[in-house]
Amino acid sequence: xxxxxxxxxxxxxxxxxxxxxxxxxxxxxxxxxxxxxxxxxxxxxxxxxxxxxxxxxxxxxxxxxxxxxxxxxxxxxxxxxxxxxxxxxxxxxxxxxxxxxxxxxxxxxxxxxxxxxxxxxxxxxxxxxxxxxxxxxxxxxxxxxxxxxxxxxxxxxxxxxxxxxxxxxxxxxxxxxxxxxxxxxxxxxxxxxxxxxxxxxxxxxxxxxxxxxxxxxxxxxxxxxxxxxxxxxxxxxxxxxxxxxxxxxxxxxxxxxxxxxxxxxxxxxxxxxxxxxxxxxxxxxxxxxxxxxxxxxxxxxxxxxxxxxxxxxxxxxxxxxxxxxxxxxxxxxxxxxxxxxxxxxxxxxxxxxxxxxxxxxxxxxxxxxxxxxxxxxxxxxxxxxxxxxxxxxxxxxxxxxxxxxxxxxxxxxxxxxxxxxxxxxxxxxxxxxxxxxxxxxxxxxxxxxxxxxxxxxxxxxxxxxxxxxxxxxxxxxxxxxxxxxxxxxxxxxxxxxxxxxxxxxxxxxxxxxxxxxxxxxxxxxxxxxxxxxxxxxxxxxxxxxxxxxxxxxxxxxxxxxxxxxxxxxxxxxxxxxxxxxxxxxxxxxxxxxxxxxxxxxxxxxxxxxxxxxxxxxxxxxxxxxxxxxxxxxxxxxxxxxxxxxxxxxxxxxxxxxxxxxxxxxxxxx
Length: 669
Prior knowledge:
By secondary structure, the protein is α/β, with parallel strands linked by helices. Helices cover 51% and strands 11% of the residues. Strands 9-10-11-12-13 form a five-stranded mixed β-sheet. Strands 1-2-4-3 form a four-stranded mixed β-sheet. This is Stage V sporulation protein R-like protein.
């Protein structure tokens, strides 16, 4: 663990943070986390805004987007719309940047938060997909990209505006990758070989017009073109649009009046920006999980383990309240609540499993036979573990000498008068086993009663395959056998393999929705107002999943690179009930034309409302039923055309795999 300094003015702040950095890392590892090593940098206000604009890195390629992001962040600070506490990047070692003007309480909160992020980066499989078995060095990679692209903009043989325009075009598609595969696997997607365009070959051949008309009549060429166009469609749509454009894209050369092969610098820039999209994909796919994970462990370390000093706790409480209380869909709040729910339900299952093995207790009489107040008292941590202070160390020393909950070596040093600040860092004299008992979730005040709310259906499931159902004579014996680490162990398992979509799909339940007061709302076409639509967990889950699938962006795939045998690109919007913004779609097609060099098309489905149906629905206080029609939007470099969509394509773009059986008129705006 090292502390970096940008300038002399930050040295005092950096020295003040040496101990919190060291001890936060030690505490994180005691709690069972396994983070990347973290380098902490102390920066001023301007540097922090620049780093946030650059996505957490010091060097990025030249582009106007960074200036726009910087200006937005500066205005947020200036007008009180958001305070910058830290930024941390996914790298090994990770790099975290602390703003020197923040209070010590804020800095401690950031450091504990960062250690949990670094653990998530190091152990979540989706982050591992980018680097694979190689060492991750993202900062060096992004710096190389920045230098290379800067070189192209400075090259007198290349027009700087061409470089900027090309980057703009690629950035319109930066999320159109196959984020569920590695960058190498996505690039090698199987596709059908495109048929030759016979008309083009005839144009290139030295054949007289008479011979051509006699041998290749237009009707026959039309039939051939139609057949080949159908055969040209890909067996499986290509999700990695950027890879497809890199392999097959051209650009329109105005001097030659036709599409020509991309120049080497264009291919190079596209490759680099695609690589960066894959690098940042894991962060976008796990925003709720990652921020919730960091907020959970930060709260435990700062509050329950008293990493925030007595004189710092109120400042920290305000810090946490601002983070968790920010409006809109708050990934910190949703994620933290879901992790706590997983911990509680796992611990409840562990306790219920033991209680169901008490003689005379079954799933049928569980709520009548069990005294939940007694169980709460039995689950409470040993006072020697729970109340560690410098004046209570003798209680720990009186425990059995092989008690696994005590760090006997550190305790011996503390009792021997060596410098161990137990009052500031009580966890130092405990092991992981001691800490899981000390922080067992079901005995915390906010969770009292959670055990008693276990459903009979869950108890029946636990009992169904239970063979040793009379292991204990008493409740006390059963509780003594509870595994206090069950909740944390399960959390780490989930942290390894899930992303936001699978996380929410698997663990958001009706109990969670009810306890945390989640609901859905809709914009009604009939009244033009928003209203609460549902408190059912399935509806809440569907709405959240739609916001996180494909980073919350429309799913666009490549259907055909030789549409209608004319070398046109056919993209398809996998429709899930939410219509494309057609104005934005036109703008994106204009940019894609720069990467394809020939006409581009997008197939989608639009919704229209009949005025009479809307009026009738308004009178009856219900939503009108939209008319869904397949459309194909085409751009040829100069103008747009809108066509009715072929029935087979319309059927293929119904994205049943991410549809979740929802339609916007049911509960979405």
